[in-house]
Amino acid sequence: SSDIYCKGELLHVVQTAGIFPDSKTFVDMKVRESPEIALKHFEKLMQDTGSNPSFDQVRSFVNQTFEDGDELEEWTPDDWKEQPALLARIENEKYRQWALSLNKLWRELGRKMKTDVRDNPSHYSLIYVPHGFVIPGGRFKELYYWDSYWIVQGLLLCDMHETAKGVIENLMHLVKVLGFVPNGSRVYYEERSQPPLLIAMARAYFDKTNDIAFIRDNIDILEKEFNFWMNNSMIEVEKDGRSYNLARYIFLSNGPRPESYREDFETTEHLANKTEERERMYWELKSGAATGWDFSSRWFIDGNGTNNGEFASRLEVLESLTMLSPAFVTHTLAPVPMCAGVLKDIKTTSIVPADLNAFLYGAATSLQFFMTKLKERVKATGYGRIASELREAVQAVLWNEEDGIWYDYDASNKKQRRYFYGSNLAPLWTYCYDEDKVEHISAKAVRYIEETGILSYRGGTPASLNQTGEQWDFPNCWAPLQAFIIQGLERTGQEDAQNLADELARRWLHANYMGYEQNVMMFEKYDAVNIGRFGGGGEYQVQEGFGWTNGLVFELLAKYGSKGGPTGDFGGVGGQGVSGQDVSNSLSHTADVVREVVRGATSLVLGADKQSDKANHHGRKPGEHHASV
Question: What are the Basic and acidic residues biased-composition ranges (predicted)?
């Protein structure tokens, strides 16, 4: 509700002036005196300039009225140790030394809030939390919701149980204050959340420590967070004559996102004279940010009910790629990334996501588990029933038996969205399927992965096969999506699925290791085409640190650390025996060229190709569009 950090004319004037390359810079600044004085200075500025201040005048106002926030201090957790027990389980010397370096990053990313944030909250956009925590890194200098899940997992594996507990308690503190966990610990995040993984964090902590007192003391908070989602995100879907309740991301607050104000304002510029439509698009953008996938073709619905918008000829794109680098086709056998949609097509609130419903199913089963431990039998039964209903709804509405995978559902057009996204595998990750069908579902999932062609990408599994320039699309790879796929396959207990998980884990570890060797940094996202290269696209530059990437590396090293180390041999599942280093060398600059070729080709809209694409997304099996190429 802040008239400086969340809404109002001051925010609009400063952010649209563009005095900072990143809109987040301003809303992270501290008020020098008080909000009231800052607003008076702004009122005078507008009076003196006839409500039309110049760039230099706005910059001078900001410099005189605000300063860089000093609300966080570096913090070394008390339970940090240089040699966590995990290191002894990593057989490869290079990986062991790498893990040793990553363990040191917990200290570098450790932060604690100064008490002045608690005592003078109106001077800051930061929301006070009582315990130290680990930031993701880069521009992300605060506590974030779903990032924290993988950070907590990494901390637990590095024997930092108290630090992990403190991170969880901070998120619980936010539930006490706001009624739910927001996107992050800033006031401008208070009107939206992120993927609901707090209960999963509490379960991970309990599984590691058996601290039932912690669960007993905080079970009401966990229930409150769960109820927030069940009460505010559910939508009724009709399927085969039955009604099912499933969740979607829907956060309806007015105006642009403060931390991306200029970007949102420009995105909606075509609606400048349509106030109501512009506000609806702000809702869609904010809901899209709440998904954690900000942004992706996953949330695009064009006039034809697809994620495509206007797209290029697949044949022309392939011919261009073949000319530029025959290795791209002959060595990697990669599916051709498609141009797909634009941000103005965003319709997040109309889409029922497979991963969100899988998360809520996992939360319900964990609450059932906790209530059983606490001998709350009635509540345990209740959460068991909720879990069963969610699982049944996911299978009835989102599962596609022909393709053998779960898809998001378009509630406005009443159809599944039959496109590859890494989130399609999330129900495997939370066991959101009938246990007696695990063999069937596992085999289907393995086949789906093979048929999509994603195994051709040695740098990791891309978020999608759509080239849009958005950061949650091709060619970017993200740690959470690797977790859903690798750990989801592993958790089925089926040999073929576990073999594929092993191969994908080996590839991801190798890509992360190569990136670290080349840059001495860990990144927020990576490039599927070039092994170890950081990803791009989106609203800001690539960020290094990086909390969730490091956390997943520790998880994979704990599971697969005895199975070798970095290698250029990528034979095995989905491989052609091609040296990973050879592919990387031959494609050292191809990813950039690919982006430009595909983006440039968007003007080549061919009528015949439109018809073939329509056929592709209305009944074809995944991967069939590669056969025509």
Answer: 610-629
For 440-486, the DSSP string reads HHHHHHHHHHHHHTGGG-TT---SBSEESS-TTSTTEEEHHHHHHHH
Query: Phi then psi for 131, rounded to 5 degrees?
Result: -110, 160
Task: Please give the Cα distance from 597 to 591 (Å, whole number).
Answer: 10
CA torsion, ordered 140, 143, 147, 153, to nearest 10 deg: 130
Q: How far apart are CA 75 and CA 241, in angstroms?
A: 57
CB 293, CB 57: distance < 8 Å: no
Q: What is the pLDDT of residue 334?
A: 53
Task: Name the band, by pLDDT with cuts 50, 70 and 90, for residue 563.
Answer: confident
Which residues are catalytic, by number?
294, 524
Give the residue from 81, 197, 78, 182 showing the smallest Cα distance to 129. Answer: 182
Are 489 and 428 in contact by the 8 Å Cβ rule? The answer is yes
Q: How far is CA 546 from CA 542, 579, 599, in A?
A: 11, 28, 29
- The phi, psi pair for 532, rounded to 5°, reads 90, -10
Q: Which of 68-72, 208-212, 462-466 has the lowest mean pLDDT?
A: 68-72
CA distances for 334 relative to 56, 255, 390, 423, angstroms: 49, 41, 36, 20
Cα(149)–Cα(198) distance, integer angstroms: 7
Rounded to whole angstroms, the Cα distance separating 578 from 581 reads 9
C-alpha to C-alpha distance for 76 and 49, rounded to whole angstroms: 48
- pLDDT score recorded for residue 29: 98
Are residues 321 and 312 in contact, defined by beta-carbon separation less than 8 angstroms?
no
Task: State the pLDDT at residue 566.
Answer: 80
The identity of residue 620, as a single letter, is R
CA pair distance 522, 512, nearest whole angstrom: 7
Instruction: Region of 496 please: left (phi>0), alpha (psi -120 to 50) or beta.
Output: alpha
Cis peptide before 475 (omega within 30 of 0): yes
Please name the helix (run of DSSP H) or strand (run of DSSP E) that holds residue 238, with its range, or none. strand 234-239
pLDDT tens sequence across 462-479: 999 999 999 999 999 999
Mean pLDDT of the chain: 88
* 171-208 per-residue burial string, b: 16 or more CB within 10 A, e: under 16: bbbbbeeeebbbbbbbbbbbbbbbbbbbbbbbbbbbeb
Residue 571 scores a pLDDT above 50: no
For the chain, how many helices (H) and strands (E)?
A: 25, 16
Q: Do the beta carbons of residue 257 and residue 289 sit within 8 Å?
A: yes
List pLDDT tens digits, range 298-311.
Answer: 999 999 999 885 44
- Above 60 in pLDDT, residue 358? yes
Question: What's the token pair of residue 113?
Answer: 């809030």
pTM: 0.88
